[in-house]
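Worked example

This section walks through a single chain of length 373. The input is the sequence exactly as stored; nothing has been trimmed or padded.
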Amino acid sequence: MLVASRRLENDGQHVVHLEIGEPDRATPHHVVEAGIRALHDGHTRYVDPAGLPALRDAIATSLAWRGVRGSAAENVVVVPGAKPMIFYALLAVLEPGDEVLVPDPGFPIYPSVVRFAGAVPVSYPGLDVARLAALITPRTRALVVNLPANPTGAVATPDALTAMATLAQRHDLAIVSDEVYGRIRYDRRADSIAALPGMLDRTVIVDSFSKTYSMTGWRLGFGVVPAALVERVTKLVVNGTSCTPPFVQLAGLAALTGSQDCVAAAVGRYQRRRDWLVDALNELPGVHCSPPEGAFYAFPDVREIETRTGLTTEQLAARLLEVHGVAVLPGTAFGPGGAGRLRLSFATADEDLEVALRRIRECVSDLAPLTAA
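Given that input, the structure is written out below as tokens.
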């Protein structure tokens, strides 16, 4: 979708980008300054593959907000972004032929990495624990959890999280818990399955600085890894990336240990945009949208429009882009469970959201004659 939108822009068409999950604000000034200072101070050489001790210590300390206790030396590994840690975590626990439960709709890297490891992705819908339990077989080795979820913005109730932990313990499953949106919750709570009794030893927490601190291009993430897996994961880091650039790590240290006012302000902006956008979408005929509880995506249900017009989810998204200049993602980009939905990022400027919504209204209005026909 991004490639298609860039092509239209090159042809002179104005496009509003709601397809990319990237904060609209710049990296906080004190974080940028820390990175520049680190460069001037010569922090440009190889460092410990698992990460700088100071950053690992800060990450271990920061786990308290999740209710997790971890050791910098025994549990924390720093990597260049969350995606490498998803790779390393799954590669560290899977054998060919294993089955892995992945959310559907969910971030498409999960089934991709599972297949890369020679294992088999098995999709589970939403947070229905009973349906999840029914999918477990003797070959099931791991469960991927993403809360708050991309693309739905869903979070788990305490009871659901406890039930998932019970399943993991009963069936001896490893957990990969993607928590990159963990600080972007509108109830201001913080839940991690790793915080539940007995779960830290079977859970890899995946997190990054990208969404929380507007550091997408810095490529900085980390894993909180069971002690038994640290050596295995670190060996994958050595062979994959050697290390994470030290000046980037020192910028991350400044982000983690400095004022968190920028995070609170960003979540406040997202919540205001969420409320406005969801209300506006629900005013459109044939569109239904529940407010996401976390992350910064609206995931409206457009099945009524598709049924009345005969358009598929992909065709509707393409029409929004090509005719109306609004780039969104079809829900099917996140798995079959996303059919009949569109993902709209509201981590963008207010004025862009207003233009996008006006154009979406025009699209729905233009489709009315097709509906009547």
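What to look for: The CA atoms of residues 23 and 347 lie 5 Å apart.
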